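Researcher: Let's run the pair from yesterday's discussion. Sequence first, then tokens, for each.
Model: Starting with the first of the pair.
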Amino acid sequence: MSRRVRIGIDVGGTHTKAVAIDNDSQEIIGKSSVKTTHDHEQGVAEGVVNSFLKVLAEYKIEPEEVVFVAHSTTQATNALLEGDVAKIGIISTAKNGVEGLLAKFQTNLKDIDLGTGRSIHILSRYLPAKQLTDEAIGKMIDELVAEGVEVIVASSAFGVDDLSCEEHIAKIAKEKGVQVTLASEMTKLYGLSRRTRTATINASILPKMLETANSTESSVRSSGVDVPLMIMRGDGGLMDVVEMKKRPVLTMLSGPAASVMGALMYLRTSNGIYFEVGGTSTNLGVIKNGRPVIDYSEISGHKTYVNSLDVRVLGVAGGSMIRVSHSGVKDVGPRSAHIAGLEYAVYTPEEEIVDPELELFAPKEGDPADYVAIKLASGKRVTITNSCAANVLGYVTEEDFSFGYPNSARKAMLPLAEYLNLTVEEVAQQILGKAVEKIVPEIENLAKKYHLEKNQMTLVGVGGGVASLIKYAAQKMDLSYKIPENAEVISSIGVALAAVQDVVERIVPSPTKADIQSIKQEVTNKAIESGATEASIEVHIEIDPQTQKITARASGATAAQAAELDGAPNEEEAFDLAVQDFRLPKEEVKLIDKTDFFTIFGASNNKGNGIRVIDKKGFIRVQREHAQVVHTTMSSYLEQVSKLWDSMANYQSDIILRPDYYFCVGPRLLDFSNTDFQQLTMLIDIEMSEIMGDEEVIIIAANRFI
């Protein structure tokens, strides 16, 4: 039987990397890397195709063996950063006079400043619904096109409730060969200005993204591979290229999303901070209950309805250069060796480090003139980076991707040490200390925002430069850390193994069971349209009792769904995983309950009754510190939920915090969180009604403390 191969491609700032993974064993069978083709006429698409073809050729993978191809993309982010955007014409409408006055004002958007000296240029027009004829729409589109508009945004007051007006505008635009984005297809949330702004940003990158997507798709097809091309979304899921052509803005931050999904799969992390280090920047974000946390993106300060990872991007990384004065190391970054066109001293062969001399300079016009370069006897100039300092101090070892020539770094740093009247090791300590000074507050802020307790936090390191910073940061913060094998291509792995995702958000005052089921079906249909198989889809629903916002997030596999990983942990191995995660002596960790699919361990400590739920793959699915476990049946689960609702209530001075619930039912782990008991039981009832038979149920209730 021939292999079935999944191929994932990640577009980085410097390199585009492809991995080939056996679909059934999930073993890596090939890796390739090419320079990212920012300046090519086809943009980064050329690098995607080149890396794809290279991995096929180098590892003798036949086109018919490929069952899955997916890639991340920097195209959306780069288009906005570089101002490579289309001029937009907004046609808005409303069905009555009062709505019309508001709609005309709320959709009359000003040019959107992209924060880089570039803007999205916008022309706004309003047409009352009663005047929305084919002729009137066509005339308005012609006028906008004559003024240079490339894409139309159709936006209607209360369009989320009735798409007909937006669809009418879109129909005429398409007949005229003009691209169009419907505001109410971007989100089902109210907020006309924000919805229109999100659609406008989407429309501005539509021509460029369509060009790139079509080029990539045709090149993949021409290689003989005939499977759907999937694209990484910024929220960690995948979507079919057909869907990407409608909503390209959803691919923003798809690079960091790819890396965190790869880390989750390989490191089986339940809660922690993912810590991605490249050459120029470090991305920080949160993994909570086995999922990356999601928030709405802001683009140059403009709020949108685009769901993406909540990421902090810092201008300090493995290749960050240093700034000095006579009193010591002043700063690390944001300028990187790559941008300055200099090699790292640590990756320069030792025999080249002859007669090193310190030079202070400005890498780019407008930069401070106190960045460090080292001039060698040959006339070549190299620079000192975080990677150099970490190699000198032994934080980077031979097993790490960022390992170089530590003696080269020592020799190159000697004139700098003399200038500062320090030892080489003291200089290296100052360099890493300055870098981590920028990172630690961001980690602390994320932990506070998402209520991560310190004993739940692990730093999850990915990216080629991660060893240069994560070990020192973990030591300073007294945290554990993990770096997976193949950390330098973890983003490509994440792309290859990620699931299809989609989300539907709606404001529904006092939602009924029928409302919830309708939204659940809607997001299921969207996930199927994006490439997921119906049988694989799981939907997680949350209701915000304050805003009445319902969020339904669907996740599912493609038709090339991989087999279960081999080597499921036995009870003893699961126990060792729990002990390691609790960070307690073995005798303090106890088996509480188990099923054919889950093993539950507990431990009492000064924080309460800790719980770890481990699944058949060895993933820690639940990691909570104040929990109770109840074993019950399908006929009695609501009674137990009610009892725990009262017994686990946490009375604060001005509020009552109610517990979160997790249900282990067969192979499914369901999680529920709501402060309204009626809505909570409705959500539980909807999920449990789909489970047939008289399954036993394990309920875990976990307190939240503030």
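Model: Moving on to the second of the pair.
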Amino acid sequence: MATFLYKLGRLAFRRRHFVALIWVALLTLAGVGAASAPAAGNTSFSIPGTEAQKAFDLLEARFPGMSADGATARVVFKAPGGGKMTDAGHKRAVEKTVEELADGSEVASVADPYTGHAVSKDGTVAYASVKYKVSGMELQDSTRDALKEAAQHARDTGLTVEVGGDALNATPETGSSEIIGIAIAAVVLVITFGSLLAAGLPLLTAIIGVGIGVSSITALASALDLGSTTSTLATMIGLAVGIDYALFIVSRYRAELAEGREREEAAGRAVGTAGSAVVFAGLTVVIALVGLSVVNIPMLTKMGVAAAGTVAIAVLIALTMIPALLGYAGRKVKPAGQKSRLLGGGRTPKRPGRPNMGTRWASFVVRRPVAVLLLGVVGLGAAAVPAASLELGLPDDGSQPVSTTQRRAYDLLSEGFGPGFNGPLMVVVDAKDSPAPKAAFAEVRARIKDLDDVVTVTPAAPNKAGDTATITVVPRSKPSSATTEDLVHAIRDKGTDIARETGSTVLVTGSTAMNIDVSQKLNDALLPYLALVVGLAFLLLIVVFRSVLVPLKAALGFLLSVLAALGAVVAVFQWGWLSGLMNVEQTGPVMSMMPIFMVGVVFGLAMDYEVFLVTRMREAYVHGETPGQAVVTGFRHGARVVTAAAVIMIAVFSGFIGSSESMVKMIGFGLAIAVFFDAFLVRMAIVPAVLALLGKRAWWLPTWLDRALPNVDVEGEGLRTAAGHGNTDPDGEKELVRA
């Protein structure tokens, strides 16, 4: 591996014009493809294998044109000054709004509040239900604009008007998060390298990689049914790893220059050593992202595969374009320890020969491994305590900021009709095989009315064939509550009994039931996903480190950091700690996708630091240093770079905390705090402490396994052997022998 990448790095350095041309051509091709591709609607949403999805599919078949999974909106009206919505003036304004709402090509139906019994008992609140032909993710912007304009026209008459439902759901605004993340990354890189040019290389290559990846996603969006969230995830992950991978290689290049090597040779060795770590770190990220397909949610699978493709591009760019750009930069990229004149280069250091911070910290940990290990484990354990109270769910309009019209509509409906009115359940009764369909419909309705937490059960609405009917159930509790979830399970339990007695099938669906099913599906998939991702990465790390204990320690450390991060998420978003600082206006259940999403993304990113830092230690150990010395050497060369990489990653993710969307805010906070815990507590404290305690045992591998595993030579031992033999051709490229 190291030998091949060494040759690739030297080739890219020498043939830099050709390499740069290839990547510019790929960027241009992807850009042209994105610009000329047909405009893609938002991705469809389906959850195979869930009862709610089966009910939607049945409705599509038995109620043609019903658009069971179509978007919905509720335009909520409230009379001003204690008036009634039944007053003549208010009634005229509402009826005019209903006419305006019905005027749209994507509108399936609009229910008048006065004919549909949608006025509260006290007469102060009313609502008009709007049903669309397509899902909320597929609505055109013009349709959403028409909905907003109709609401505004009603407001102009003096009514309080708010709009709820999934029809207004759009891609959340994250503001200037990406720009802020890149700006912080630039500052960190300049401090790390002491050179504007060297700092610019990782940023340039990361932007090119993300540009190719996101443009490719845009070009294929229509054909593969990819949504805007796919590009958001690809941008977030691609930008973070793209900067990190380039940072690793440029840092190693400067270290090779500091040892007196020629620039082409330094580029080759940087790609051969740090590049090997980048390849395996990238593989762990790809495994984690592609592994999301285990959940069997198509949208999540597409997001993971697309983001994995962007990571693969980042790896290829780091291995080829970085050495090519280093060739262009020439002597403007200084050896490690030197700064450009603009940033103070050429000055005499105040304390020459003093060990850097990484060396001093590693030396302290090696002297006090037990204390550092206990402190790190206890600290992470304390942070993980709130995770024991983790409650999972999916956000609804009740979790929106109070400044949004969706949240205000939610509150008005709760005020006028009760909190359960915001999450009605749709019960679908399939009586095709029943000898008495009408009796089956009546029996289902009667059984549901007897359940606790039920406010209203509408009469059955059969289809034309009379073999299938829908029944709407309004719970007493709010949609995201555990009580409503219990009601859904109770209805399904009753449905099992009814099926035996009447021969009909009872299914529960609607947005609330769908959220419950999705949460359960994600919970059920978490352990298999964790086993798959950690298992495959464990095997990969055994090959990289030629050790059993080091990969085991890496996996256990990751679990500690993820549990601590989940604890922090629960404390902030469920318990409300520091909610004011994070601008969390509504606490509640943690998003169901959060644990599995955090496991996938954070595991891949955490292994970046593990591979880069520990391969340096492994390299020093293989080259003859004692285990303790190897730990210090690894930190001397890698701590500064890993610290910079972690700060950059945290900055990129933290930018999303400013989003107005609670889900995006939670993801940004969760990923940022997880990277902080993993980089600074696990990799920088627990890892060196464990390695210091294990000593030579850390690098133990059974003889039979050592013979069976391929020798990938991440440490670059083959490069050292070849250099010792002096195998160099006239052009300066060595014909390396395998170690």
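Researcher: Give me one sentence on the second I can quote.
Model: The longest strand covers residues 125-132.
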